[in-house]
Amino acid sequence: MSVTTSRRRFLTGAGAGAAVAGGAALGLAPGPAVALEAEEATRSRSTGIGPSTVRPDDPRYGDLARGWNGRFVGTPDYVRVAGTTAHVESALAEAAAAGSRLAVRSGGHCLENFVCDPAVRIVLDVSQMQGISYDAGRRAVVVEPGATLRQVYKTLYTAWGVTIPGGTCPSVGAGGHIQGGGYGPLARRHGVVPDHLYGVEVVTLDRSGTPRTVVATREPGDPNRELWWAHTGGGGGNFGVVTKYFLRSTGTVPANPDPSRLLPRPPVQTRTVAYALPWSGLNQERFSRLLRGYLEWFAANSAPDSPFARLNAEFWGLHTGSSPAVTINVSVDPSEQDADSLLAAFRADVVDPVGVTPTVSERLLPWLQSTNASGYADTGAVVQRRNKAKGSYLRASYSDEQLATTYRWLTATELRAPLAGVLMSGFGGRSNAVGVDDTAVPQRDSVVKVLHTVHWDNPAVDDTHMSWVREFYRDVHRATGGVPELDGIADGSYINYADVDLADPAWNTSGTPWYRLYYKHSYERLQAVKGRWDPRNFFRHTLSVTPPS
């Protein structure tokens, strides 16, 4: 199995509900909405696309009624394709007047059935809102929600030599990725994507059902600042429809408004070394030594000022029925003077002590090419395999029992799946330099993000594959009620890895509600945001923020 191809299949990182937004300031009533006429300069310009209404008799319907996860196919009355903010406003007004449930899709990578829910009668498709530009007045780069990560990386880098520290799946849409707390290989060096979010343009719906387009920024005096805050990790499907993201790194306010100075600069090249350790040489003791070494390495080398924050790695523990080897991919900027020593230290601490000779492969790519290394074309055809995924944050290494459990589920259980296993991505570094209340991402001392997942093709074996990943995850966390505990070895989960099982007492017996696992102490603040900007609870799904009681 190709390591790079596997990465694309494995990590979706997509935001719940695509471009549906979160946010608002604490208080009893909304602050003054930004007048649409006064803000005309910020609104989406006409692209000549939309509004278009796609009904079941339209040949496009079969494609537009589904997303990336092949398990879910929607049956909406229609799909409304929007090209501008005005189109979004009209769609919301129409849905509110009709009393119809509406969901929003940008990249289509939602892991759960939030958009394809049978209760959803209207799908608002913002995938064609793909503009990327520079707003000189705000001194911010503007990204619309339908732009894919591939488009974002290419345009930011080609035009200005900058980037955002986002994910590695090129067809994920910016709409859900950014507001869900998106991260990727550069997060250890530059933080998560919301750490670079200056503002948002959002279409909300007031109590009367009237759309209101507002702009919210992180400026201390902005009356809508909480609307910005909730987009820094609050996840999609909650408070409105994002039509623009304004990106500018914190503290970056140049006197000369030069977009090349507003966001992080990526490395010129990426050097990746892959260590493949064959399952045939890994018994339980050796596997545990490998995984423990990997997790302990990140626990020891993930402070914001650690020299090793410049190194990132991914641990691919794929089931023996999916891959003949466990693989660790390690990447650095080769222009760093100590790049060789960083790689050597990692290997000495993690790989060599296992006592199994790995197959080593190395690749050096220009940075922009490395972002497309999976080779997947961004065709817009997001129909993929059926899958189920479950996430967690880690603050420390698994216990001996958890290591043994992981080995057992990857080797001893009978499973034949194109891809099944656990992905552990390096985290921490500059991601942990931000305060727990500064954004809506409260897990700011975690060192690894974990994704348990399985992909398959045949719906007749849904139960087998769903049971495998659910029971695997529950068994790993059996000491804490089947879910990742807070402030222990684990620290809850990541909302872009949406998992409705966390809200199901059959799978979560911890007594900790799902919203604590995702949002920790920030949930009440998000509820206040909900009460202010979505008092009708118009934007909702299985894991959406609820209004305050």
UniProtKB/TrEMBL annotation:
Pfam families in the record: BBE (PF08031), FAD_binding_4 (PF01565)
Keyword Lipid biosynthesis among UniProt keywords: no
Signal peptide (UniProt feature, chain positions): 1-35
Keyword Transcription (UniProt): no
Single Gene Ontology MF annotation: FAD binding
InterPro entries listed in its UniProt record: BBE, FAD-bd_PCMH, FAD-bd_PCMH-like_sf, FAD-bd_PCMH_sub2, FAD-linked_Oxidoreductase, Oxid_FAD_bind_N, TAT_signal, TAT_signal_bac_arc
Residues in FAD-binding PCMH-type domain copies: 72-252
Keywords: FAD, Flavoprotein, Oxidoreductase, Signal
Region (Disordered): 39-59
Cofactor(s) needed by this chain: FAD
Coiled-coil intervals: none
Family: Belongs to the oxygen-dependent FAD-linked oxidoreductase family.
Annotated protein name in UniProt: FAD-binding protein
